[in-house]
Write a structure and sequence with these properties.
single chain; about 90 residues; alpha+beta; 4-stranded antiparallel sheet; 2 helices
Length: about 90
Amino acid sequence: MAHELENLNVYRAAMTKYWRLAVKRGRIPAGTTPEQYFGFKVIEIVCMHRFLAGEGRGVWFRLDDGRVVDSRGEPAIPDPSHYDLVAN
């Protein structure tokens, strides 16, 4: 259980980091939340990828419904074979 809570904290911190960047860059209004920006809640994250073939390093959130969303809140390739590194 503690390990799962640790993962949620890591995922939440990553979501917050990229949401803040989006607010700072004017991509979204300051009154939003990370969940509104990304379109999912931290509890929906299964794992976080760190590398995508053809794109290189980055952050991609794999969700429990099979979707993958990048650090800009955009949909990404759902096929797990395209991702090399996983943080979960």
